[in-house]
Amino acid sequence: MVRTELIVGFAALALFIFALIDCISIYESRIKTLNKLAWVFIIIIVPIIGPILWLTLGKGHLDSSQSPARFRDSRPVAPDDDPVFLRNASRIEEQDERIRRLEAELKALNDDKPEE
Question: The whole model's pTM is what?
Answer without folding.
Answer: 0.53
